[in-house]
Amino acid sequence: MSFRARLVALFTITIALTVFLVAALVSSSTTRAYERIDDARTQALVNQFHQEFSQSGASVTRRVEAIADSDDMRRVAVDMAAAPDYSAFWQEAGHLNARRLDLLELTAQDGTIISSEHWPARFGFKEEWLAQATPAQWKTQAAFLKQIDLPDGDTLAIITVRPVEVADKVFYLVGGDRLNRDFMASLTLSRGMDAWLYRPPLTSTASATLLTSQGVARWDESEPRWSELNGLISNIQKQGGELHATVHWPESPGSSPVPRTVYGIPLFDRNINSSNKDVLAVMLVSSSQAELLHLTRRIQLTALAS
């Protein structure tokens, strides 16, 4: 090979290596920049969830306290305190609920239900958990998440408890709003992001469910996407803290799997006198890396074309 040919070959190899190195550096820096942006927007959604939850709790507390402090509530409490039994007051929760809470109950101090707007037939049943705290503790307790029984099943609700005291009698006002599709619809999702509220099965024969802005869906174990999340959810339930994992899901039926980061946020039952808290649900927030993969491939193809 002549000197000129060797020089041309060396020059060609040098250019190719330079292009390759530049492409690798650009791809690497692009990946790091994208990951920073992706982490920031995911954290923003997580923060938004906490903020929406807090605001919903504050709204519930304001409305429950307004009912508890109302003249109508005071009148009903005086009448109940003087009555030999509470059977005449089974409809009072509905009459008091001018603030239009999704759920409202009026109970005795031991948790016996006097009136329930969302399930009137529960008159006389007992909410055992109410007796686990004193009136003074309930008076300052912030809103919290609770599983509430309904005639057609159950629901998760953000609730507030406030005592109503008359002479030597104490009654409890328990009010709240459901954690439903409207709450999920209030979350602002960027492109490539999704959010679900996972609820574990309540019995061995029941199925877990997923709540989205579209409604409730059954957790299908045969669905590959959900089976990949079992480990993440199990660890969150055991450790009681926020965790994340990377899964690989196809963006559409028949397409190749794409990496997706899923963050899990545990939502606890509130036991006012115990450090032990049950995980009632797990908020799942996911972010697809499809855009990053597409951008990386374009950089690589551009480098090869050069």
Quaternary form: single chain
User: Structural class, judged by helices and strands?
Assistant: alpha+beta
* CATH C-level label of the largest domain: Alpha Beta
How many structural units, i.e. domains?
2
Distance between the termini: 26 Å
Averaged pLDDT: 81
**Total number of helical segments?**
8
Give the DSSP E fraction (strand runs of 2 or more residues).
Answer: 25-35%
Order of helices and strands: HHHEEHEEEHEEEHHEEEH
Uncertain spans: none
Strand order in space, largest sheet: 8-7-6-11-10-9
Report the CATH topology name of the largest domain. Answer: Beta-Lactamase
For the secondary structure, the number of strands is 11
Largest sheet: number of strands, sense, barrel closure: 6 strands, antiparallel
Query: Overall 3D geometry?
Result: elongated
Compute the CA-based radius of gyration: 28 Å
- Secondary structure: helix percent: 40-55%
Q: Just name the CATH architecture of the largest domain.
A: 2-Layer Sandwich
Please name the defining characteristics of this protein:
8 helices, alpha+beta, Beta-Lactamase, elongated, 306 residues, five-stranded antiparallel sheet
